[in-house]
Design a protein that fits this description.
Structural class: alpha+beta
Bound molecules: zinc ion
CATH class: Alpha Beta
CATH superfamily: Fumarylacetoacetase-like, C-terminal domain
Low-confidence stretches: none
Number of helices: 4
Order of helices and strands: EHEEEEEEEHHEEEEHEEEE
Number of strands: 16
Strand content: 35-45%
Mean pLDDT: 97
Oligomer: single chain
Number of domains: 1
């Protein structure tokens, strides 16, 4: 399986990064070794500015290529929640030098994923609330209504370039409020008020 991540899909986050609003979905990938479903996350030694980005995650349920926006709903059935962990210091260096982002984004355990996925029939896809708390204080909250490109558009766009396969995950972008985590922090993710994961930074 592969992990596809969407960048700058919420205008408030693009603003806080001083990045332009994209005209088409921007995506990058993480390898399957990035998946993290455990509790204890060990702060990587290569960064001193690890940031959280909480994101809704779409699980692909059918193989497809060149999927139209109209047909996209046939290619996923459930939504989960994750964190796109980012070594912000390395990402800044990569961006400044025009280099790829893998060092900053694709490292081991950088894709926190909830065990549970919620069937899309149980959700109003245009109105999913999600949030991240750090040590019991909410630090990021978003709603799917604020996505610049909604899920069906993301699937259609990505599948023009990359064949989607069953089990692939699409991280749909983070709302504003990204920031650093420290050893000792506990991060908890919520979808429509339900606890989806808890991660302790060690
Ligand atoms: Zn992200």
């Amino acid at each position: 399986m592969k992990i596809i991540c969407i960048g700058r899909n919420y205008s408030d986050h693009a603003k806080e990064m001083n990045s332009p609003i994209p005209e088409e979905p921007l995506f990058f990938m993480k390898p399957d070794t990035a998946l993290f479903r455990e509790t204890n996350f060990y702060y990587p030694e290569f960064t001193s500015d690890l940031h959280h980005e909480v994101e809704l995650v779409v699980k692909i349920s059918k193989v497809g290529k060149h999927i139209s926006v109209k047909n996209a709903p046939n290619y996923y059935s459930a939504i989960g929640l994750g964190i796109d962990f980012t070594a912000r210091d390395l990402q800044k260096q990569c961006k400044a030098q025009g280099l790829p982002w893998e060092k900053a984004k694709a490292f081991d355990n950088s894709a926190v994923i909830s065990q549970q996925f919620i069937s899309k029939e149980e959700l109003d896809l245009g109105n999913i609330n999600f949030s991240l708390s750090k040590n019991n204080t909410t630090i990021q909250s978003g709603n799917s209504a604020d996505m610049l490109f909604h899920i069906d558009e993301l699937i259609s766009h990505v599948s023009k370039f990359v064949t989607l396969k069953t089990g692939d995950l699409i991280y749909t972008g983070t709302p504003e409020g990204v920031g650093p985590v420290q050893i000792g922090d506990e991060l908890s993710g919520y979808l429509n008020g339900n606890l989806m994961f808890s991660v302790k930074i060690k």
